[in-house]
């Protein structure tokens, strides 16, 4: 196995640390475009996953700007990150290495959630909740799309 084969799993964990549903939305978008992921997960082809993942990703982008939005490190926020990172990390890992991909993604998402929260709080003090959230959205959505595109593109290319 090539040394870089598990990098997408780590990177998608970093994406999940900031936006828990963005990894699911990015993979759902790839599956709707009929792109295969390296890891084999049957649930990725279920219509509920594809459309639900997109809807939850969009919903999270709006919900994050609300004053009542909880910190990403509350129990349910961390649970969502663990689940999303695990599924996405597994899907982006090479076939047969799905469990390791999930573990790497989760191991990246949880500690980075705390680091990201500290950074976001600093940004909120300087430029406000909405503006800092929109900037973070652009960065994280672009990163999620790029990681998934890279992973599925690398998988689709002949070896």
Report what the structure shows.
This protein is mostly helical. The chain has six helices and no strands. It has helices at residues 7-18, 22-32, 47-63, 75-92, 98-127, 129-156. The chain starts with 6 loop residues before the first helix and ends with a helix. The relative contact order is 0.22. The model has no long low-confidence stretch (mean pLDDT 90).
* Succession of helices and strands: HHHHHH
What is the mean predicted local confidence, pLDDT? Answer: 90
Radius of gyration: 15 Å
In helices, the fraction of residues equals over 70%
Give the CA-based shape: globular
Structural class: mainly alpha
In the predicted model, the low-confidence regions spanning at least 5 consecutive residues are: none
Main features:
globular, 159 residues, mainly alpha, 6 helices
């Amino acid at each position: 196995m090539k040394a870089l084969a598990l990098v997408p799993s780590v990177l998608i964990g970093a994406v999940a640390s900031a936006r828990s549903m963005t990894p699911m939305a990015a993979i759902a978008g790839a599956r709707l475009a009929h792109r295969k992921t390296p890891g084999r997960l049957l649930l990725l082809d279920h219509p509920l996953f594809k459309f639900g993942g997109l809807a939850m990703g969009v919903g999270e982008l709006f919900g994050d700007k609300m004053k009542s939005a909880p910190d990403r490190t509350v129990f349910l926020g961390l649970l969502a990150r663990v689940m999303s990172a695990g599924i996405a990390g597994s899907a982006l890992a090479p076939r047969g290495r799905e469990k390791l991909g999930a573990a790497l993604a989760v191991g990246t998402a949880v500690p980075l959630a705390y680091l990201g929260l500290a950074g976001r709080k600093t940004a909120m003090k300087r430029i406000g909740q909405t503006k800092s959230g929109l900037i973070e959205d652009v960065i994280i959505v672009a990163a999620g799309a790029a990681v998934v595109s890279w992973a599925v593109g690398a998988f689709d290319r002949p070896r």
